[in-house]
Amino acid sequence: MDKEQDNQGRGPARSAPRDSLFLLTSLVTPEGAPLGKARVRNLSATGLMADCERAVPAGVRVMLELRGVGTVSGIVAWSKEDRIGVAFDEPIDPQLARRPVSSGTRPNLPDYLRMQPAPRR
Fold first, then answer.
1. Of 11 and 76, more confident
2. pTM for the full predicted model
3. Cα separations (Å) of 79 from 60, 97, 103?
4. Contact at 8 Å (CB) between 91 and 40?
């Protein structure tokens, strides 16, 4: 581990470019035991960094749901207080998490919120 990274409270060097973002998720073990909520701060094809509501030790296997990506599994590579780094089992496309959350071309709005044509005079 690089001493400069260790002094800044970060985990081991990263091998893939990462994007800063803010996603909420929940961590669970592969058996389904809840490990708490997490705020994903950085995301790359090979892993993420997150703030957790409680400490999760290094070496724990986790699963989480990422918007636009789906269920992702990995291992907690490092842990420092309430912050963790997760190394994914399989690479993902991190850009999928940045796409807008829409399911089609037409918004699913109730009738009273849709634009009504102006009355004829």
1. 76
2. 0.69
3. 10, 23, 36
4. no
Are 54 and 24 a contacting pair, CB within 8 Å?
A: no
Quickly list DSSP for 19-75: EEEEEEEEEE-TT--EEEEEEEEEEESSEEEEEESS---TT-EEEEEETTTEEEEEE
What is the distance between the alpha carbons of residues 117 and 57, in angstroms, rounded to a whole number? Answer: 58
Amino acid identity, residue 73? S
How confident is the model over 64-96, as pLDDT tens digits? Answer: 999 999 999 999 999 999 999 999 999 999 999
- For residue 86, the surrounding DSSP H or E stretch is strand 83-88
CB 41 within 8 A of CB 47: no
The backbone torsions φ and ψ at residue 7, rounded to the nearest 5 degrees and listed phi first, read -65, -25
The two structure tokens encoding residue 59: 């070496």
